[in-house]
Amino acid sequence: MENAKLQMIFKNLEDRRVTLSVDNPRNDLTGEEVRGTMDNIIETNVFDSNGGDLTTPVGARVVRTTIEEIEI
């Protein structure tokens, strides 16, 4: 079984990195869509971080994990 997570990486007011993860993103996501979502997250200020508000999109990636069960 494979799991996927979209990780959106931001900087906050203290210039620290903050990563927001979304499980099972669509396979056909575009950079434009992700950037628009990240900009919207910053504009609406819906998430708190220990270092203050999110201020800048840094990057995004999809992380895929393959899980193989082993019978014991």
TrEMBL record:
| Listed InterPro entries | DUF2922 (IPR021321)
Q: Lineage of the source organism? A: Bacteria, Bacillati, Bacillota, Tissierellia, Tissierellales
Q: What Pfam family is a match, any one?
A: DUF2922
Organism, by scientific name, is Anaerosalibacter bizertensis
Q: What name appears for this protein in its UniProt entry?
A: DUF2922 domain-containing protein
